[in-house]
Amino acid sequence: MHLTIDGRVVEAVPGQTVLEAARAAGIYIPALCYHPKTGKAGRCRACVVEVEGLRGLKESCALLVKDGMVVRTDTPKVLQTRRMIVELLLSEGHHNCISCQSNADCELQEMAYHLGIERPSYLVESLPTPKDMSSGGIVRDSDKCIQCGRCVVACQHGVVNQVLSFAYRGSHAQVVCDDDQPMGESTCVQCGECVQVCPVGALVLKQPLENKIRPHETTATKVTCPYCGVGCQIDLHTKDNRYAFAMAHEGQWDRQPNKGMLCVKGRFGLDYIDSPDRLRSPLVRKKGKLEKASWDEALDVVAKGLKAIQEKHGPDAVGFFTSAKVSNEENYALQRFGRALIGTNNIDHCARL
Amino acid sequence: MITKLIEKKIEKIAARYPDRRSALLPAFHLVQRESGGFVGHDHLIAIAKIIGVPVSEAYGVQTYYTMFRREPVGKYHLQVDTNIPAMLAGAEEIVTHLEQALGIQVGQTTPDKKFTLSTVECLASCGTCPVIQVNDRYYESMTKERTDALLASLRRDKMPDMPVETHFHTECNVLLARRGLPNATDIDVYLETGGFQGLERALQMSPAEVIAEVKASNIRGRGGAGFPAGVKWGFLAKDTGKPIYLVCNADEGEPGTFKDRQIMQYDPHLLIEGIVISGYAIEASLGFIYIRGEFAWIANILERALEQARNKGFLGKNILGSGFDFDIVVHLGAGAYVCGEETALIESLEGKRGNPRLKPPFPAVIGLYGSPTIVNNVETLASIPFIVERGAKAFMEFGEANNFGPKIFGISGHVNRPGVYEYPLGTPLATLLDAAGGVVGQLKAVIVGGLSVPILTAQEAEGLVMSYDDCLKKGTMLGSGGIMVLNETASIPKVALRAIRFYAHESCGQCTPCRQGSRTISELLAGIVAGRGTRKDIDLVLKLCDSIKGTTLCPTGEAFAVPIEAMVTKFRSEFESLVS
């Protein structure tokens, strides 16, 4: 089917929303509370459009496309509404892009940029709230929260950890953990899904914040999580070829095994890549001391040792323990080695990382 | 810890609802009442566990509603309504008087833990303001002398009986017919005066015939929007395989409105009969009365009346031998104006924060527990027995085209006899003001449909006829029919500030324009009233009002943007005289 958006004929499929159809066609409609993973919410009012034949403004995140629909995203009322939304959001809390961890990775900033708003025409005075630094991996800054509710939906209905919720009412409403506990003392398991969906700088990862690395400086590489067998797709962010942080890969999220989510290990457990403690060459114990060795030398030592044990005590004196962090093929090769060459069934695997 | 007995009571409450989560608000009320006047951390965790909701959500619900407390209060919690009708009647002086008498400020508790003083939003006592709610009880028409007498009695640990003179009159004898009768809440009095004949007639008709009669009467919803009730019933999704629910909206909270209370407090069986007939018509399996939490004492009147109706066979299984099974659950709100909006009400009834839903779908398709649901106002449902018993034609003898039927007008503010007056729709405003004893002093302005409608100047109000259509024609709305009268002593900027503070307090906080817009306008108007404002601030208020209109998730944004805009535009010189 086809619809017309701002005079452009756009292709759409039944069941799509106007917002989805517009975005698929490269037409910018801001949406601060809608996220593909958390769905429509109707909270931010940023995505409103006008539709010929319908009275008033319509939320494009909730409006299903109809063949022949004529949509406008650039009428005076739509633009007036968008300006008001940005000004009101900027006037509450303390939004300061200069030192914000999410600078250049912020949907509110992007919306303000599109409208050419640098600062709001009025300010509502409010005392700054201290950041919640209590948790291991996540920093919460309620002064930057725009009450979009993505994190709440993600926590309650996405990952179903049920930690985040809206509490209080009106302009006092805020996102809390359990009954308003610091995140580090709450039942939060640090999956980081809230950070994943936050459109602004209200929920950010602690490590890059402390290392002074912002998302716009990093390169994302799609990798498969090396922990358990689910096969979660990760965007591994690096700067200067060093690990910065990890986010779930969101491209075609609904077709991925992890549906664009990660657990605490995938989110926070990959910084060992650059650890100085990590072994980078084989070590062989000589006179009670571990010394660097070449692969040939090390493999000779292993082969000799295994052979000696096998000859002296029989094959079942040897056992093999392999890892979930290596591939299925490598695991297969090792068990073949154990059974066929050594002749033992003493093979186990640490799938419980 | 929560005792086994309280846990059992919660389980018993949960069994009343199709979904046990609905018992969350009642559980908070129960634990608060029986465990020291507040619900702290341990009790919250226990409630969440019993009901089966995450602690985070239970906390979200608890902190949404102003009646639920996290901290202890004094033995007597004095809550003074300071909304506009109360303000016009001198509530501010009562607050000051209480502060002096108790030696504490609003929000504080006396050192002996006996008194806590709070200010609250409209308690629906607009005709008998100022009102002080002490714990669950209302003390109305308070003067300084009566306040002193109240305090003296409370100091002796006695909740006194303090009679109140109320003003009422009915021209129609439909909704306020039994208003002056002694013991009118008793089912025997109701039956002696012709009660339940509408139900008997309805049960001889088919549900479709009842709907047809209601449609033919053209009754428009009395909650405020004026949508034809019969048409609304017609939107019900058919053959969904799900039960149908009927919800009576008794969350009367619109400032200036105190009409539904008259029916529930003085003639509860009229409402019950209306709900049973309507439940039969729409083939509902269960009915609910969602009543505002401050009306807990009126809920007790309803509970007693429901019990009487059950005992006489007007409610429950096989009503009057017809084979129709239907019962009604009374559900208390907990202090949230927005729950008067039907989808917010449904959320609240489901045990959630009272946040309005995105529409469509409308409740008639997906409502309570995902089932087709009709939400009707108390006054609408209380009109149904008359329509069914006497016929649509008799109903249409009241009023005029497109605006038929009797209507309760609540008149408050600067009139000699504030109170409730039942007149046909289409009655001139002047007639109603006369009925209310006339204006005290000179009429300056009038808000005719509850706080959410645009104010009219005295000149604009001339010749106004109180019908949906004429109000619209004159640039305002009939709304709930709550008429607030302002004389020359009223300061419109102060009224505007009090109005926007109410909406900022009541905004659910979901959508940006309402949450932040109400707060910003509130701060701007506070600056203007305090003499710190500028002309630019006045323009900014108008700009914000204009921008907010039509952009919010529910009608609350409009409910303040339109009236504030009207106050500033029509009385701009008053605002300008305050600014530099």
How is this structure best described in words?
- The complex is a heterodimer of chains A (353) and B (580).
- With 353 residues, chain A is an alpha+beta fold.
- Helices cover 25% and strands 19% of the residues of chain A.
- In chain A, the strands form 6 sheets. A 5-stranded mixed beta sheet of chain A has the order 2-1-5-3-4, with helices on both faces. In chain A, strands 10-11-12 form a 3-stranded antiparallel beta sheet. In chain A, strands 6-9 form a two-stranded antiparallel sheet.
- Chain B has 5 domains: 61 residues, no CATH class; 80 residues, Glutaredoxin (3-Layer(aba) Sandwich); 226 residues, 3-Layer(aba) Sandwich (Rossmann fold); 78 residues, Ubiquitin-like (UB roll) (Roll), CATH 3.10.20.600; 85 residues, NADH-ubiquinone oxidoreductase 51kDa subunit, iron-sulphur binding domain (de novo design (two linked rop proteins)), CATH 1.20.1440.
- Chain B has 25 helices and 18 strands.
- A 6-stranded mixed beta sheet of chain B has the order 5-13-12-18-15-16.
- Chains A and B meet through helix 2 and strand 7 of A and helix 3, helix 4, helix 21, helix 22 and helix 23 of B.
